[in-house]
Amino acid sequence: MFTKKSIATLLKATALGAIISALTACGIAPPKTEIAYAEAALQSARNADLEGIAGVQLERAASKLQQAKAEMQDGDNAKALRLANEAIADANLAQAKAQAGIARSSESDMQKSLEMLKTQLK
Length: 122
Description:
elongated; Substrate Binding Domain Of Dnak, Chain:A, Domain 2; mainly alpha
């Protein structure tokens, strides 16, 4: 037989289960902030890639950003969040690749200048 204490515990557990179910059904909020950050990261990477070194990564980031926006419109916020974060990572990779290319180019120019100075000193 049920006691008052066990009935109260059962009611609390049922209420907690209902609250958790309601929160789970709501899912996560639309990742508007992450999408905005991905857009900014993509634009920054495009600005850094003056020599066209990171074209593949830029395309991948832009594609994932578009997919994230579409998923958010469709209401799949979890997938939109994942895609937005992937777009941010791809944009950051593109920017790093572009900066590395610029650094290599600068290093090459410095090496040429150094060689020219060495020949002039001889």
